[in-house]
Write a structure and sequence with these properties.
The structure is a homohexamer of 189-residue chains. Chain A contains ten helices and no strands. Chain A has helices at residues 19-32, 37-42, 46-60, 68-81, 85-99, 104-110, 119-134, 140-148, 153-176, 182-186. Chain A is globular and about 50 Å long. In chain A, 51% of the residues are buried. Chains in contact: A-B, A-C, A-E, A-F, B-C, B-D, B-E, C-D, C-F, D-E, D-F, E-F. Chain E binds chain F through residues 1-4, 80, 83-85, 88-89, 102-103, 106-107, 109-111, 113-114, 116-119, 174, 177, 182, 185-186, 189, and chain F through 1-4, 80, 83-85, 88-89, 102-103, 106-107, 109-111, 113-114, 116-119, 174, 177, 182, 185-186, 189.
Chain lengths: 189, 189, 189, 189, 189, 189
Amino acid sequence: MVNHRISRFPVPELSDLPQDIRDRIEAVQEKSGFVPNVFVALAHRADEFRAFFAMHDALMDKSDGLSKAEREMVVVATSATNNCLYCVVAHGAILRIRAKNPLIADQLATNPWKADLSDRERTIVDFALLVAGNSASITDDQIAALEEKGLTQAEIWDIGAITAFFASSNRLANLASMRPNDEFYSMAR
Amino acid sequence: MVNHRISRFPVPELSDLPQDIRDRIEAVQEKSGFVPNVFVALAHRADEFRAFFAMHDALMDKSDGLSKAEREMVVVATSATNNCLYCVVAHGAILRIRAKNPLIADQLATNPWKADLSDRERTIVDFALLVAGNSASITDDQIAALEEKGLTQAEIWDIGAITAFFASSNRLANLASMRPNDEFYSMAR
Amino acid sequence: MVNHRISRFPVPELSDLPQDIRDRIEAVQEKSGFVPNVFVALAHRADEFRAFFAMHDALMDKSDGLSKAEREMVVVATSATNNCLYCVVAHGAILRIRAKNPLIADQLATNPWKADLSDRERTIVDFALLVAGNSASITDDQIAALEEKGLTQAEIWDIGAITAFFASSNRLANLASMRPNDEFYSMAR
Amino acid sequence: MVNHRISRFPVPELSDLPQDIRDRIEAVQEKSGFVPNVFVALAHRADEFRAFFAMHDALMDKSDGLSKAEREMVVVATSATNNCLYCVVAHGAILRIRAKNPLIADQLATNPWKADLSDRERTIVDFALLVAGNSASITDDQIAALEEKGLTQAEIWDIGAITAFFASSNRLANLASMRPNDEFYSMAR
Amino acid sequence: MVNHRISRFPVPELSDLPQDIRDRIEAVQEKSGFVPNVFVALAHRADEFRAFFAMHDALMDKSDGLSKAEREMVVVATSATNNCLYCVVAHGAILRIRAKNPLIADQLATNPWKADLSDRERTIVDFALLVAGNSASITDDQIAALEEKGLTQAEIWDIGAITAFFASSNRLANLASMRPNDEFYSMAR
Amino acid sequence: MVNHRISRFPVPELSDLPQDIRDRIEAVQEKSGFVPNVFVALAHRADEFRAFFAMHDALMDKSDGLSKAEREMVVVATSATNNCLYCVVAHGAILRIRAKNPLIADQLATNPWKADLSDRERTIVDFALLVAGNSASITDDQIAALEEKGLTQAEIWDIGAITAFFASSNRLANLASMRPNDEFYSMAR
């Protein structure tokens, strides 16, 4: 029957966690008003938790080159192709906020080819979908074509690295059947 | 650049339409407060419009056997596998209303295997996905297994017929790049 | 073991049907010399029967723009990709008659890229296969390219709408394991 | 435009061929009343021609274990999944003759899961489709299950070897765009 | 023409790197006798480098539960399905060393279903392939079946987390067209 | 548990074989120092053995047009897409010898798009992969493009015919779960 647990794997009590992880979780709770479930679902593995959020922050908490909204577009479009409920719902909310657009997340998640995108955003999302779906076939000519459309080498790396990181996150969340917090569904609509 | 038109194909003025089609459109407008774009996007072909909505009503406007919410679950889950933006967004809204559940549409659209479903709903959605994705391989044994799980023959037909009708609707909406009304995105969340 | 029934679902007696449905069936019997099984396999649902044939007639019984043979080419090629025995065999027969070509149906059903087609027919069939297989990815550029090859907007809609209708018919026929009448196999060879 | 040539590759004159190949071609012409195009399409490579027909005869011209009709069922079902027009049309004709069944070839080519097959034929065709589509995944358990259903080890090899040989023939025929003789389409219907 | 560069993206000089990254690279060079190219290919992004190897070490440098050889089996099998040359060649070498088996890496990379595996290894590799290929469909029943076969919850997480991490690594290496060092190809054969 | 047998099907004693087959096997043993398992795995069917090696020799034992190394590149790249362990390992060894390149076999087997290939080799391998994966879609324009890149018609046939032959060999080897001799793994590295 219907099952509302957060994860298939152990979910520790906050009080049982190492101090640095508690600090991180309490900081996000203060900022967001609730603790996104990914923090508690990964906390049973302290070293993996730290590496995961270190990579997350290195890729998502900056806005030189790709804007923060563009980064979230990559996350939502590629997470949808991997059918990752947690990532689509949670990052869909963040994308709506960052892009100040209540429609864009559902559009990218349902049919990324029909979303309301600028030419630059179209190029970014198309390449992200290629990295997500068939990275083995990427050619030098395809990289050169992105540069001709105005992307820098650093931006191309960012698109690929964000897509790669969420290829991992999507699989972890699917493995754990990680449940998105109810709050995310209605944020910024 | 970003393009907000309703359809790639002609969108007639209401005043240019046959009376029965105008009546239908005005009735839905009165009930919903706006005209869902599918009505105007199909109106350039009067006979096809009439047949389309006759089939729609025959399959969706009844609740013997499958409930109205179950019918909409079939629509959302199968339309998502066809990446149909119009059907997922518009019928997602209707599903939230009919199921009195603000989460279920996003769940079914993103990962139908992880949605909060009862056992009966799980059986219904799984069969709908089979008809949508590989109807040619359906065996007598699979039909018998559905009956063992408590579905009647009429319910099995309904699941298949709704899935089949939206296989058609999804392709039409994608062909036309039909745009969901902004109102649908936030309804009943 | 081998099973020759017409459908997995109820097949009503002609005498039990509403008058308008009986009239339609008797008309086709008079014209064809036999009753194609689709008529009896759908008759257990009167409203769906009426809507189905209303859509069929709106799309298939005209020849402005796409010729009747071109319409049947769309049906046979796309029904084959959906492995729909009923539609390939029955509409294969109709295509042979309409195109006055005993080979074209088997060619389109087996390998649509190797059939004896004119350039215009090639364009039509290729687009139908795109709508059948991946309608979500259709771009404005692809539509424009069809217009450059000489198709009108109305013809493009017809190709898409016929393909969409048979996406539905193929799934219904596969659901019911609908059996083509033996007569169809050898007609017009 | 429409192109009726037999092959994309050289088609030699009968008089230019080595005597053994001429003899083989003249023998088939005498028996069938026409020369199937595969003989002339492969004749430009004498050694490959000889090896090809040696393998063909070793696999197809015997009836211990699998009957000749069962062998042709394997050919038609697997050639259809490879969209090989030549093999489906030519061997479809042979299958109709060998099985004394005018419907079976079109059934197997269009939807092999819905053909009028006995339980034994169903087992044979299902295994052939597995070898054609995903031979890498075949397990010992699957082989053992075939033996439990009554197939001998020699029959299992024959199913696999015929499927393997036509995996090759289908690709050669598609490479050459080999054209089936018109005669095949209507034989034994 | 043939191109032997290490990466499509910048490869910094060792002397230009932060001290902690230089230390890590010099340590691996001392241990292995050469610097695996992944270290220099990721070094242009210091924070991503640190997070990447922190996750790598958390998942790969332990042997409680899954042995080190079993961890490498997961890497090689799943990296092969992603066609990642760097990961298959480099981790193939490590697997040959850890498993003391010169054949196992080529077996897992070419056909993971035919490799010389124990029952436990078979279970591990099969689940890794499921997480790599279709994590969205994993059910509670499938997790329970793994436990019945003797895997602990911690081992199941490890299989999934390693597969997830290499889903990311494979995409990064393919994005960069990262070149495996020649030394890896012949190690431990 | 781990199983090291050569084939799922009968493996006859050398002394029980027809003289011509014994001669062939003894010749290869003298030349190679061991008997490749394919010879003993096919020997239970004398006529098929003869036809198989006749085709093999006609396609692989010549070097006009395609060089012997280029022929083996086709074998390794296409056998890898079919996950054929025997063909990848055995012909990988032969390719390393013929191309005098210890890396090329693993590169082609893991990611054929990233291998160290000349432009001509790139064209050859790309076409082989097309014939292996989707021969039905090959167009006249694609053949003409190969000729523009400098391939002769005879070379195009050779690429296609070798790919076709190994489509067959791969399926036979997978059917039999044919085991590569241990010697092949380390040859010419």
